[in-house]
Automatic annotation (TrEMBL):
Residues 24-283 form the EAL domain. This is EAL domain-containing protein. It comes from Solirubrobacter deserti. It comes from the Bacteria.
Length: 284
């Protein structure tokens, strides 16, 4: 009987794997046409200064408006796009859209000239030699090449820490364009301080995992965030706290010296028109 149930389990495991593979293949197939059909849209989440809550920049976050399944989260389709390489085309689309949107908002006076936009970049995009050319093209096409520091690229710790020196060369290529580089999800990867010191980044984005327990007696988060903000100060880096949801977290982040704040306490990511309405200069 034990044998039979082991075999049964094996079969069940097998068919789940097959289902998952089939589901993945379906997502991949549909994703290929999603770009052409303009189903991939970009939402914007405000990032505000910790001290006065003024708008500093916004993060461009991709969403898939699927005709049948509704809005699909990037947590579902970005990993698939990374596996099959489609992330390169998707990433280019997000980059161009975000640059064009920021330029339009600046021209319309929705945001000031000092407000920036950041775009997420996957390892696959960094590995590919065309990234700097894509970034340069997006800047030139939108006219942001006159003020390239308003564009930031979010890279994760893990893709830089384990990467060969060619990745470091790529970062210097990007920096030469005048754009900013941010380390996303900071604290979740295995960082080497020696490596961090050599990375040409401007900003550490403190992962939400360290924000949740801020100000709570039963949590280490205060100590970790204090360590990260003092490290950032020593390296002359800015910090963005991700996933800030409560006033208590905000108060602690101010005390700990975080530069800026991103999270549902201020706003979730919004479609462009809602962002302009809620965060445009006219709102105050
Ligand atoms: P991320 O870059 O770390 O983005 C932050 C995520 O945290 C976003 O999820 C955002 O909506 C969410 N978030 C922000 N504030 C809060 C908060 O207060 N509470 C909670 N619970 N969540 C908050 P989203 O938009 O679902 O994106 C998930 C991930 O997908 C991103 O993580 C990023 O790694 C990836 N992603 C999104 N857009 C792109 C893209 O255009 N290209 C690439 N390569 N990856 C993307
Ligand atoms: Mg990000
Ligand atoms: Mg992040
Ligand atoms: Mg994150």
């Amino acid at each position: 009987a034990a044998k039979r149930s082991a075999a049964g389990r094996h079969i069940r495991f097998d068919s789940t794997m097959r289902e998952r593979a089939r589901e993945r293949a379906r997502v991949e197939q549909e994703l290929r046409t999603a770009l052409v059909k303009d189903e991939l849209v970009v939402h914007y989440q405000p990032i505000v200064y910790a001290d006065d809550g003024a708008l500093k920049s916004m993060e461009a976050l991709v969403r898939w408006e699927h005709p049948v399944r509704g809005r699909v989260s990037p947590g579902v389709f970005v990993p698939v796009a990374e596996d099959c390489g489609l992330i390169v085309d998707i990433g280019r689309h997000v980059l161009r859209t975000a640059c064009r949107q920021l330029a339009a908002w600046r021209a319309a006076g929705v945001v000031g000239e000092d407000v920036g936009v950041t775009v997420n970049v996957s390892a696959r995009q960094l590995e590919q030699s065309g990234l700097a050319a894509d970034v340069a093209a997006a800047l030139a096409e939108s006219g942001l090449d006159a003020t390239p520091a308003v564009l930031g690229l979010e890279l994760t710790e893990s893709m830089l820490m384990n990467s060969p020196n060619s990745a470091l060369d790529r970062l210097h290529e990007l920096r030469a364009l005048g754009v900013r580089l941010l380390l996303d999800d900071f604290g979740t990867g295995a960082s080497s301080l020696a490596r961090l010191r050599r990375l040409p980044v401007d900003t550490l984005k403190i992962d939400r995992a360290f924000i949740t327990g801020l100000g709570r007696a039963d949590s280490d988060d205060d100590a970790f965030v204090a360590a990260i903000t003092s490290l950032a100060a020593a390296l002359r880096l800015e910090t963005v706290a991700e996933g800030v949801e409560t006033d208590q977290q905000l108060a602690r982040l101010r005390e700990l010296g975080a530069t800026s704040i991103q999270g549902f306490l201020f706003s979730q990511a919004l479609p462009a028109d809602e962002f302009a309405r809620d965060w445009g200069a006219a709102r105050r």
